[in-house]
Design a protein that fits this description.
The structure is a single chain. The protein is an all-alpha fold. The protein has two domains: 207 residues, no CATH class; 226 residues, no CATH class. Helices cover 70% and strands 0% of the residues. The chain is globular, with a radius of gyration of 22 Å.
């Protein structure tokens, strides 16, 4: 089978896989995770046989892949001292899945057509997942979904974890804003992307995830900073306004906002909210499509915003402010946050700060090798300051230092550094293709820094695909499936025209 025949099938599986996993509890449990990992590596083998092998061709890509290989290898080695062998094996399985997906993304997204499909495909997947969860609230007389008591009325289906739902909705929102603001996209696609910001905005709100809301807002600001055009600014502003309106609509009806009330009251609330959200989505979609057609007629008009560097500086300041505000506010505030009410969004108190303190304590005691992969849950049970069962540190960086020590942190730094370096190069070489992946990947990273998204493949695989897209863009894309030669991929010499 030729590479030309293999690439479309592999790209389809790569982009649709995270959405499919979302309907199996996000791929958290063993069976769907193993099936996904086997499928990913079978596709890697198919790409290798069709040739060339899906491997990076520049240092940034090798750093990203090498860092992930290092995390997986050290996690496997830590089985020698990890307190729970089963938990460590599960983590290794997940890392093997992520490594296969990253190689697939690098190998398939070198073709311009494939990398162009990343933003709309992942945005559509997020909309499907969030729309499914919303359907149980908007149509309670027709659809009946399970709701855990721990969720407290927050949006949790189909992934079964509310904060993960919020993170995926925020990533989808930023990708939709990018598609809606991309003048190279057809008007119908930009209109659909604009319409999708309504359910995604409602999903972010109904997760009551403060981290998802903050990351989504920062992601929209970063999107405008890396794609400094009037089209993108208008699309991001419209997406934010629509998301706020959709969240307000959901909040107005208790049956939708927190699953409160009798069955008949919930049916009534759901019907009214569904009608309002449908009108909001239709209005936003029409506005986005109308603006797209207007821009196409005025193709010669100036679209670039003035002072783009100032936009980048402003986005960096906001990013730093949000991060510091969450950490400092949480350290000063005590008490368990409330569940599915708007009051939850007015405070930053959380038990996470206890998790983080014990994660740092574990690192101080085992600075080089860590507790062993999956070992935090045992350390927590032994030294926890509150009576709560916790399995994860709820921070990707702290998980690395607590469970894998300095060796794991070094591998993690190499992986992140490689993706960042690839993103910088991709923005210089292909800004129109790299802006969306950069902003959406940042949204995921911010949220993963304060939660356990890394353990949920349906939420983290889109970020892995986005990282692979940035690596592929940094190496150069072509009209076909094969990468351009080194001379064509190299940046122009200073002063060249």
């Amino acid at each position: 089978m030729t590479r030309r025949a293999v690439l479309p099938a592999v790209a389809t599986c790569l982009l649709a896989g995270p959405t499919a996993l979302a309907f199996y509890s996000g791929g958290f449990f063993t069976e769907p995770r193993l099936v996904a990992a086997i499928a990913a590596w079978a596709l890697v083998l198919a790409l290798t046989v069709a040739g060339p092998a899906p491997l990076p061709r520049r240092p940034a890509g090798w750093l990203a892949v090498g860092g992930l290989v290092g995390i997986a290898a050290w996690s496997a080695i830590s089985l020698a001292w990890a307190p729970l062998g089963g938990a460590a094996i599960q983590n290794v399985e997940r890392l093997v899945l992520y490594l296969g997906a990253l190689l697939l993304a690098i190998g398939t997204l070198r073709a311009r057509g494939a990398v162009r499909a990343v933003e709309p495909a992942l945005a559509a997947g997020a909309t499907i997942v969030i729309g499914y969860g919303l359907a149980g609230r908007l149509l309670p007389g027709v659809l009946h979904f399970a709701h855990s008591q721990r969720a407290g009325g927050r949006l949790e289906q189909p992934i079964t974890y509310w904060n993960a739902e919020g993170a995926l909705a925020a990533v989808g929102l930023v990708l939709c804003a990018r598609v809606a603001g991309d003048r190279s996209r057809p008007a119908w696609m930009r209109g659909l992307a604009g319409a999708a910001t309504a359910p995604l905005g409602a999903g972010v709100y109904l997760s009551y995830s403060r981290g998802a809301i903050a990351a989504g807002v920062v992601g929209l600001m970063v999107l405008v900073a890396v794609a400094p055009t009037r089209s993108q600014l208008c699309a991001a502003a419209l997406a934010l306004a629509t998301a706020v309106a959709a969240g307000g609509c959901a909040a107005a009806f208790p049956g939708v906002a927190s699953l409160e009330g009798t069955h008949s009251a919930r049916v009534r609330d759901g019907a009214v909210a569904l009608a309002i959200l449908a009108l909001l989505a239709a209005a936003t979609g029409l506005l986005a499509a109308r603006r797209a057609r207007s821009e196409r007629r005025d193709a010669a008009g100036r679209d670039v915003l003035g002072h783009p560097r100032r936009l980048g500086a402003a986005a960096a300041i906001v990013l730093a402010g949000v991060t510091v505000g969450l950490v400092v506010g949480g350290l000063l505030e005590k008490g368990r946050p409330v569940g599915a009410t708007a009051a939850r969004l007015t405070q930053v108190s959380s038990n996470r700060y206890d998790y983080w303190r014990l994660g740092l304590r574990a690192f101080r005691r085992h600075p080089l090798d860590g507790l062993g992969s999956g070992g935090f849950r045992v350390f927590w049970l032994r030294e926890r300051p509150i009576t709560e069962t916790v399995q994860e540190v709820h921070s990707l960086e702290l998980e690395m230092v607590a469970e894998l020590g300095l060796v794991g942190l070094l591998a993690f730094g190499l992986m992140v550094g490689g993706v960042v370096a690839a993103g910088r190069r991709a923005l210089r070489a292909h800004p129109e293709l790299a802006a969306g992946p950069c902003a959406a990947a940042l949204v995921w990273f911010l949220h993963a820094s304060i939660d356990w998204d890394w353990q949920i493949p349906a939420v983290s695989l889109p970020a892995v695909v986005l990282a692979g897209a940035l690596v592929a863009l940094a190496e150069g894309v072509s009209a076909g499936g094969r990468p351009p030669d080194r001379a064509a991929a190299a940046p122009p010499a200073p002063g060249a025209r």
